[in-house]
Amino acid sequence: MLDFLKDEQIDPELLKGIEDFRRQFPPEEASSSGAHPRYVYYGREVWEQALSALLCGENLLLAGSKATGKNVLAENLAALFGRPSYNVSFHINMDASFMIGADTFRDRQVVFRPGPVYESAARGGFCILDEINMARNEALAVLHSVLDFRRVINVPGYDSIQVHGAARFIATMNYGYAGTRELNEALASRFMVIHMPEITEENLVKLLRREFPAMKKEYTQQFAGLFTDIGKKCKSGELTARVLDLRGLLDSIRLMRRGLSPLLALDMGITNKTFDTYEQSLVRDIIASRISKKADRHSVFDL
Ligand SMILES: Nc1ncnc2c1ncn2[C@@H]1O[C@H](COP(=O)(O)OP(=O)(O)O)[C@@H](O)[C@H]1O
Ligand SMILES: [Mg+2]
C-alpha cells in the first residue's frame, strides 16, 4: 500500500509518518494479511487529509453520498497503519451494550463479552463506525469519552479502560438523499470531517484499469466519461443523485463481462435506479451517446 501511495504522489512526510507509526506500534501477524486490500482508494487530497488527521491522533468522519469510497478508504487506512479493523454497522436499535460490551453467562458464570468499540480500544484497532448517523443520539452518548481527549471507556460495573495509543475511530455517514439523518453537534465536534468528493474522471480510468485489466482502452474512457456526464447533469439539476451510482456502474460492467449486453447491464446498474420514466429516458440518451447499441462483451473486453 505504501508503494501505491508513492505512485499517487502523496506527501513523503506523511508516508514517513506512517512508517514511524508502524515502528511505534508494530503490526500483529494477523493484520499483516490486510496489507493488500481488495480495492484501493483514489484521491490524493482526501488521502492527505485522512493521513494527517490520523497521524495527529484524531478521529475521522467520512461524510458523503453513496459509493464515494468511504468504506474502501477506511479499510485501506487500517491496512496501511497495520492495525486490525473492527466494523460496527449502525442502525436505529444500536445500543451501548452492543458497542461496548455486556455481561453474559458462560459455564454458569457471569463474564464480560467485549463489543467492537471495547476491542479496538483494548487492542489498538481501527474501529469503523459505519453509517453512524443511523443510530439514535442517546445511544451515541457513550462514545463521547472514548472520542475526546479523555480517551477512556466506562464499562458499568467494571474499571474504566484507557484507549490504546494506536486505536483510531473512523465514522462514515451517508447524506444527500431523503431519509438521511444529521449527526448531532457534540459528536461531530469530536471528529475531523472529510466531505468525500465523487471520483474524478482521471481516477475512475485508473480504477477501471485495475479492476478490469481486460477492458479495451476506448471503453475505459467511455465508461469514465459516462459517469462524468451523469455527474454533471446531477449538478445542474437535470438528473437526481439516484442515477449517479459508481457501485452500479462497476456492477454493470461485471455483468457485461459475464456476457450480458452493455445496454441491458447499464439499465440494471444505473438507469433503473430511478423510478421516474422521464429520467430513465434522459439517462438512456446519455448512455446511447457513448455506448453503441451493437456493442457486446467482445467489443468491451479483450477476452
Ligand atoms: N475515490 C474512489 N477510489 C476508489 N474506489 C472508489 C472511489 N469512489 C468509489 N469507489 C468504488 O465505489 C464502490 C463503493 O465503495 P464504498 O467504499 O463501499 O462506498 P461508500 O461506503 O462511500 O458507499 C467500490 O467499488 C469502490 O472501489
Ligand atoms: Mg458504505
Q: Can you offer a commentary on this structure?
A:
The chain has 303 residues and is of the alpha/beta class. The chain has two domains: 2-195, 3-Layer(aba) Sandwich (Rossmann fold); 201-300. Helices cover 46% and strands 14% of the residues. It is built from 16 helices and nine strands. It has helices at 2-7, 12-24, 29-32, 44-55, 70-81, 96-100, 116-123, 137-140, 144-147, 185-188, 201-211, 217-235, 246-258, 262-269, 277-288, 297-300, and strands at 60-64, 85-89, 101-106, 109-114, 126-130, 152-153, 161-162, 168-174, 192-195. The strands form three sheets. A five-stranded parallel β-sheet has the order 2-5-8-1-9. A two-stranded antiparallel sheet has the order 3-4. A hairpin with a 7-residue loop joins strand 6 and strand 7. The model has no long low-confidence stretch (mean pLDDT 94). Bound molecules: adenosine-5'-diphosphate and magnesium ion (MG). Adenosine-5'-diphosphate binds at residues 39, 41-43, 66-72, 172, 199, 203, 207, 246-247, 250.
Summarize the structure.
The protein has helices spanning 2-7, 12-24, 29-32, 44-55, 70-81, 96-100, 116-123, 137-140, 144-147, 185-188, 201-211, 217-235, 246-258, 262-269, 277-288, 297-300, and strands at residues 60-64, 85-89, 101-106, 109-114, 126-130, 152-153, 161-162, 168-174, 192-195.
> How many domains comprise the coordinates?
2
Q: How would you write the strand order of the largest sheet?
A: 2-5-8-1-9
Rg over C-alpha atoms, rounded to the nearest angstrom: 22 Å
CATH class group of the largest domain:
Alpha Beta
CATH architecture of the largest domain: 3-Layer(aba) Sandwich
Number of strands: 9
What structural class results from the helix and strand content?
alpha/beta
Total helices: the number is 16
Which ligands appear in the coordinates?
A: adenosine-5'-diphosphate, magnesium ion
The CATH topology of the largest domain turns out to be Rossmann fold
The string of secondary-structure elements, in order, is HHHHEHEHEEHEHHEEEHEHHHHHH
From the N-terminal CA to the C-terminal CA, the straight-line distance is: 29 Å
Q: Identify the overall geometry.
A: globular
- The residue ranges in which pLDDT falls below 50 over 5 or more consecutive positions are none
